[in-house]
Specification:
The chain is an alpha/beta fold. It has one domain: TIM Barrel. It is built from eleven helices and ten strands. It has an eight-stranded parallel beta sheet. The chain has a two-stranded antiparallel sheet with strand order 1-2. The longest helix has 15 residues, at 92-106. It is globular. The protein binds NADP nicotinamide-adenine-dinucleotide phosphate. NADP nicotinamide-adenine-dinucleotide phosphate binds at residues 17-19, 51, 117, 147-148, 169, 198-203, 222, 224, 240-245, 248, 251-252. NADP nicotinamide-adenine-dinucleotide phosphate binds next to helix 10.
Length: 269
């Protein structure tokens, strides 16, 4: 595994996403066995960064992560857990309540990294950060970050946060370069902020053209592994692919060890 460090925080280049664990927008308990099996195999394979949110399966993803970790015997300190407060809960007291509820669902004493999931039109960002700063102060949350923030809001968040903004979690993949075009990636790289690439595999939209196919063959890898390797070969970029399939989970983890040449990076760019 390769890692990125910003400030005093070290994160693996590849973590595990949990959207669709435990359901979709709502909890679907009929999927629990499948979801728990996916979390167990991710833990067994050695994933240490788990990305979740109060919004995922209406909180049920957090419950299942808590249960899978408890049953795995993996020590809490060996893991890095990211969760997120949803846009409708950005008022001061709602942020505090959301975090308490997430901690209870995870059955953990702290969240390593707590993000604003999406900005909300008309939100009072300083009110939100007053609550987020308090959570850090109280030890409920170790670090703060944001998600889906464009440049102007990201800079505002930096101003309002009493501790460094560790990450901006945004869509980034071979098929989605919107946060390159809008200048966020470059800003993160110049200002010691991790860009956490979500939906990095983007199976449905990935265009497996000639270049990607031949680079994959040269590395004896799948095009999806090369898509991940392309992301994490970039400084300050980490990612959090999701898979129910243990074979895909292993492939994704192994992608962290695939080093692409400058020429290969250029072709994929
Ligand atoms: N902050 C936000 O607003 C936001 C938004 C979206 C996502 N996220 C986070 O980012 C995580 C990842 O994004 P995502 O779940 O949207 O998309 P993703 O990880 O890019 O793609 C997941 C899909 O790719 C397939 N897949 C994964 N690895 C594969 C491989 N090696 N070969 C073939 N297929 C593979 C999975 O199917 P199988 O199960 O069959 O492998 C699954 O259908 C989420 O789980 C969530 O934690 C955050």
């Amino acid at each position: 595994m390769r890692y990125e460090t910003v400030h005093d925080v070290t994160l693996p280049k590849i973590g595990f996403g949990t959207w669709s664990i435990g359901g979709g927008t709502y909890a679907d308990r009929s999927r629990d066995a499948k979801s728990l099996a996916a979390l167990r195999s991710a833990l067994d394979l050695g994933y240490t960064h788990f990305d979740t949110a109060e919004m995922y399966a209406d909180g049920h993803a957090e419950e299942l992560i808590g249960r899978a970790v408890r049953e795995s015997g993996v020590k809490r300190e060996a893991l890095f857990v990211t969760s997120k407060v949803k846009p409708s809960n950005l008022h001061y007291s709602d942020v505090l309540k959301s975090c308490e509820t997430s901690l209870r669902r995870l059955s953990m004493e702290y969240i390593d990294l707590y993000l604003i999931h999406w900005p909300m039109v008309g939100m009072n960002l300083s009110d939100t950060f007053r609550a987020l700063n308090k959570l850090v102060h109280d030890g409920k949350v170790k670090h703060l970050g944001v998600s889906n923030f464009k440049l102007k809001l990201l800079k505002e968040a930096q101003e309002l946060s009493e501790t460094p903004i560790i990450t901006n979690q945004v869509p980034y993949s071979l098929s989605d370069r919107s946060y390159v075009k809008n200048g966020v990636l470059e800003y993160c790289q110049k200002n010691n902020i991790l860009l956490t690439a979500y939906s990095p595999v983007d199976v449905g939209r990935l265009n497996v053209g000639k270049a990607l196919q031949s680079i994959a063959e040269a590395h004896n890898a799948s095009p999806f592994q090369i898509a991940l390797a392309w992301l994490i070969n970039q400084p300050y970029v980490i990612t959090i692919p999701m898979s129910f399939d243990p074979k895909h989970q292993k492939e994704n983890l192994d992608a962290a060890d695939t080093v692409l040449t400058d020429e290969e990076m250029k072709q994929l760019n």
